[in-house]
Automatic annotation (TrEMBL):
<dbReference type="GO" id="GO:0016810">
    <property type="term" value="F:hydrolase activity, acting on carbon-nitrogen (but not peptide) bonds"/>
</dbReference>
<keyword id="KW-0479">Metal-binding</keyword>
<dbReference type="InterPro" id="IPR050248">
    <property type="entry name" value="Polysacc_deacetylase_ArnD"/>
</dbReference>
<feature type="domain" description="NodB homology">
    <location>
        <begin position="26"/>
        <end position="202"/>
    </location>
</feature>
<dbReference type="GO" id="GO:0005975">
    <property type="term" value="P:carbohydrate metabolic process"/>
</dbReference>
<dbReference type="InterPro" id="IPR002509">
    <property type="entry name" value="NODB_dom"/>
</dbReference>
<keyword id="KW-0378">Hydrolase</keyword>
<dbReference type="GO" id="GO:0046872">
    <property type="term" value="F:metal ion binding"/>
</dbReference>
<protein>
    <submittedName>
        <fullName>Polysaccharide deacetylase family protein</fullName>
    </submittedName>
</protein>
<dbReference type="GO" id="GO:0016020">
    <property type="term" value="C:membrane"/>
</dbReference>
<dbReference type="InterPro" id="IPR011330">
    <property type="entry name" value="Glyco_hydro/deAcase_b/a-brl"/>
</dbReference>
<dbReference type="Pfam" id="PF01522">
    <property type="entry name" value="Polysacc_deac_1"/>
</dbReference>
Length: 202
């Protein structure tokens, strides 16, 4: 069960987390979770390059070690990268110590201080430990591309319907999301560029 836009109570419960950027300008932030992997990350990079826009990739450390050439391409092409733990851990199901060690293991592979918790699940105690060293990035729009029960058209409509100035939009570069990403991502970019939006990294 998920909602395309996170409920207000979550934002109030986790005020230290970044859910959306400034609403004063027509700037959007595309983000991609779980990669890099050869099956879909190069397609995403090619699409971003085609439209001359930048995104932010929240990388799983294990995938960075398996596919360093794709990770390097993300950096070489001017995209931002962030930490998504080394093994895609669920913070609710992981002790604080194990969670932080896993984050640090991933951090050793990455520049910067961006972090996004896998599944969006992180304990307040983990937030407290991380807040001094990382910007914890959540989202304003969850595309639903991971949902195998929806179509690419539905995924696209989710993004178009809920995106607004400053939105942080989530797509995934994982196997499950491939058909919906391939349909929705280029159409999302094309639609919002025509509406006068720009895309920027976090």
């Amino acid at each position: 069960m998920y909602t395309v836009r996170p409920p207000l109570f979550l934002k109030l419960f986790y005020p230290r987390l970044i859910w959306r950027k400034s609403n004063k300008e027509k700037i959007l932030h595309l983000t991609f979770d779980d990669g890099p992997i050869p099956e879909i990350t190069p397609f995403i990079l090619d699409t971003l390059k085609e439209f001359d826009v930048k995104g932010t990739f929240f990388c799983v450390g294990e995938n960075v070690t398996k596919h360093p050439e794709i990770f390097k391409r993300c950096l070489d092409e001017g995209h931002s990268v962030g930490n998504h733990t080394f093994n895609h851990l669920n913070g609710f199901k992981t002790s604080n110590e194990d969670y932080l060690v896993n984050i640090q293991r991933c951090q050793e592979l990455l520049p910067g201080n961006l972090f996004r918790p896998p599944y969006g699940r992180i304990k307040p105690s983990q937030v407290k430990r991380l807040a001094g060293t990382h910007q914890i990035i959540m989202w304003d729009v969850l595309s639903g591309d991971f949902d195998v029960h929806i179509s690419g058209e539905k995924c696209l409509n989710n993004v178009i319907r809920y995106t607004r100035n400053g939105s942080i939009i989530v797509f995934h570069d994982n196997i499950k999301a491939i058909p919906r990403v391939k349909y929705a991502l280029p159409r999302t970019i094309e639609y919002f560029l025509k509406q006068g939006y720009q895309f920027d990294v976090l």
